[in-house]
Design goal:
This protein is of the alpha/beta class and 500 residues long. It contains 15 helices and 23 strands. Strand 13, helix 9 and strand 14 form a beta-alpha-beta unit. Helix 2 packs antiparallel against helix 4, helix 3 crosses helix 4 and helix 9 crosses helix 10. The structure holds ligand TXE. The site of ligand TXE has 26 residues, from helix 7 and helix 8. Ligand TXE binds next to helix 7 and helix 8.
Length: 500
């Protein structure tokens, strides 16, 4: 942690291969959530910075990146993965300082996953195929073209993990990129820009800093931007969609969730309790996939509740750098206030706190950080605001159900539909629920077990589109068809007016 009064680092936009002064001399401070002290400043962000970034990305696209051989791009992504892996510890420390998350989590999840994203899409590109449809005397083949400059707008909860999740397929498919990391967590994106400066031609990766309402909004609207991949809140996603619509930009929106964890009496209850606690509280509950509603079959409510409470109480909050720490700080004072306003509302809505929900006393220098004890609440009506709205913090509610039909009704009874996790030993039930749950992803007897080849995304208000594996490659490219009619010996030429 930086001692009080130490000079702030200045993080600048990365444009055309170099860190550049912003157009306006207006700055925001970036705080270290674990202690509340500022450690850096970033530009507030302006339309001028965004214009420059997008125009540079357009130039780099036209000057050749869009026409490089796929094998060459795959090699560059592999180089980026190796360079990032070699500096994993530095990136993990930066991520932990910037987000308040445990260093152990950054070391074990965020940074290895960022490396895997780059490596995975290098491989996916090498093995990519496009279809060819043949009929008598006619050949239709599909080619994929890059879109041009694309915008990647990312949140503060998994900063490098989510940026590289979008960046790798975007570059793989031959697009150039303008990234806007969250104003709360600009650290690792800035480190990545420095790293990519050694690997990519200037302009292929551009990065602007700043607020959503300045830099983010201008980026979505910029005329050179052909697609927007956004991860963030549902309300912001709706605004991004409105801004992108008039120019028919391609859109991928990964938004919020209020995900259910369903625990049936036939499950291994110890494993289910461990899984439910991990799903609810990893990263302080600040992951769109977090299981913030725990639905449990009434016949096992009592022992399951006890197992849950014991596990939640055993979670250790503390210095993010301490390897024994399970939970770090929330991202900001404002965010903690918002989460606490939900805790107050939970009491009004009839919730009973089984554990947590207070501000823990922390020793110096952590006393000024944004700490909150993980909270488990029961007794909330299923339709209450706390049981249906995304809180995005260390808060989970517990709800009993009588049978599978009621479990399904409760699980589907919110406007979100990102993911669900089902704990049961009954294979028929697992398949039935996998089919009927309104969610983009269903896990059975696990949570957040990812295979990067699989589609990722939500239904209902959790988003639009899918990323992952070939879905990412499709999003970041335009499929085009070429139809060739030819005379093949005695085979009659196909009649163009009659579809095959
Ligand atoms: O996210 P925002 P915030 C949810 C969660 C959280 C709430 C708000 O419920 O409490 O969203 O968080 C940029 N045009 N999630 O305010 O505002 C912004 O600068 C273009 C769920 O941090 O959605 C940042 O880079 N861009 C989520 C990014 O959008 C705009 C993760 C996300 O910010 C913009 C984070 C605009 N008008 C929060 N306004 C998840 N799905 O994982 C903001 N931005």
């Amino acid at each position: 942690m930086k001692p009080a009064g130490a000079a702030l680092q200045t993080l600048r936009p990365f444009l055309d291969g170099v860190f550049t002064d912003p157009a306006r001399d207006e700055w925001l401070q970036v705080q270290e959530p674990a202690c509340g002290r500022p450690w850096a400043r970033i530009p507030r962000g302006s339309e001028e910075d965004v214009r420059r970034a997008a125009a540079g990305a357009r130039r780099a696209f036209e000057e050749g990146w869009g026409r490089t051989a796929p094998g060459e791009r795959a090699d560059l992504l592999d180089q980026a993965a190796a360079a990032l892996e070699a500096r994993s510890e530095e990136f993990a420390r930066c991520e932990s300082r910037d987000t308040g998350k445990p260093l152990r989590l950054a070391r074990e999840l965020d940074i290895p996953r960022a490396v895997a994203n780059l490596r995975f899409f290098a491989g996916a590109l090498r093995h990519d195929e496009t279809p060819c449809h043949e009929s008598a005397g006619v050949l239709n083949y599909t080619s994929r073209r890059p879109l041009g400059p694309v915008a990647l707008i990312t949140p503060w909860n998994l900063p490098l993990y989510l940026l590289t999740w979008k960046l790798a397929p975007a570059l793989a498919m031959g697009n150039t990129v303008v990234a806007k990391p969250s104003e709360w967590t600009p650290g690792t994106a800035t480190l990545l820009a420095g790293l990519l400066a050694e690997i990519l031609p200037p302009g292929v990766f551009q990065m602007v800093h700043g607020l959503g309402e300045t830099a983010g909004r201008a980026l979505v609207r910029d005329p050179d931007i052909r697609a927007v991949s956004f991860t963030g809140g549902t309300a912001t996603g709706a605004e991004v969609a409105r801004s992108a619509a008039p120019a028919f930009k391609k859109l991928s929106l990964e938004l919020g969730g209020k995900n259910p964890t369903l625990v049936f009496a036939d499950a291994d209850l110890e494993e289910a309790a461990a899984g439910a606690v991990r799903a609810a509280f990893t990263n302080q509950g600040q992951i769109c996939l977090c299981g913030s509603r725990i639905l449990v079959e009434a016949s096992v409510l009592k022992p399951f509740r006890e197992a849950l409470v014991e596990r939640v109480r055993a979670l250790r909050l503390g210095d993010p750098a301490d390897p024994a720490t399970d939970l770090g700080a929330l991202i900001s004072a404002e965010h903690r206030d918002r989460v606490e306003s939900y805790l107050a509302l939970a009491r009004e809505e009839g919730g009973r706190f089984l554990t947590g929900g207070g501000r823990p006393p922390m020793p110096e220098p952590l006393a000024g950080g944004y700490w909150l004890e993980p909270a488990l609440v029961e007794g909330l009506p299923a339709a209450s605001r706390c049981a249906t709205e995304e809180i995005f913090g260390p808060v989970a509610s517990l709800h009993p159900f009588r049978d599978e039909a009621e479990a399904l009704r409760l699980a589907n009874g919110v406007r979100y539909g990102l993911c669900a996790s089902v704990w049961t030993r009954d294979l028929d039930r697992a398949h039935r629920l996998g089919h009927d749950l309104e969610a983009g992803m269903v896990w059975v007897n696990t949570w957040l077990l990812r295979d990067l080849r699989t589609p990722f995304g939500g239904v209902k208000d959790s988003g639009l589109g899918r990323e992952g594996g070939r879905w990412s490659l499709e999003f970041f490219s335009e499929a085009r068809n070429l139809c060739i009619r030819y005379c093949a010996g005695d085979v009659p030429a196909a009649q163009p007016s009659r579809p095959t």
